[in-house]
């Protein structure tokens, strides 16, 4: 509302839009936010290095490879293959076959059927071949055969 309307209301500050309950919101809220704090002290740098080193350790040891207990739930799990950590939802692993030297990225969901325990009429339902790469965040849901 402009100041010249004569209604007696105060004008919106420059660079803002009307919000709820008569409040004003910044027109571009993300541009007005301060930049993330970057520590310059040795303690901040050490904490950053420790967090990243810890995450790398967790990712390396949380990945699923041949011979790991979670890999034994799959119909087959090829030599040299890896499901990166963290994995997405995994349902019906018995009907999922993964070939050799295959990389499944983090947050990938693999499902044979729509819900855990669903009866499958074919085996395998999901077959991922040799030397395949499935990128981060992908979802593969098979019903009969993929």
Strands, count: 11
Outline the low-pLDDT stretches: 1-5
SSE class? alpha/beta
Q: Span from first to last CA?
A: 59 Å
Rounded average pLDDT: 84
Percentage beta strand: 15-25%
Q: What would you call the quaternary organization?
A: single chain
The tally of helices reads: 2
The run of helices and strands is EEHHEEEEEEEEE
Kindly state the percentage of residues in helix: 10-25%
Radius of gyration (CA) equals: 26 Å
List the strand order in the largest sheet: 3-6-9
Q: Largest sheet, described in full?
A: 3 strands, parallel
Shape descriptor reads flat
Give the secondary structure arrangement, pairings included.
Elements (H helix, E strand, L loop, with lengths): L15 E3 L5 E3 L2 H4 L9 H21 L13 E2 L4 E2 L6 E2 L4 E3 L4 E2 L4 E4 L13 E3 L4 E2 L4 E4 L4
Parallel strand pairs: 3-6, 4-7, 5-8, 6-9, 7-10, 8-11
Antiparallel strand pairs: 1-2
Describe this structure in words.
There is one protein chain. This protein has 146 residues and is α/β, with parallel strands linked by helices. It has a domain at 55-142. It has 2 helices and 11 strands; from the N terminus they run ββααβββββββββ. It has a 3-stranded parallel sheet with strand order 3-6-9, with no helix packed on it. It has a 3-stranded parallel sheet with strand order 4-7-10, with no helix packed on it. Strands 5-8-11 form a 3-stranded parallel sheet, with no helix packed on it. It is flat and about 60 Å long.
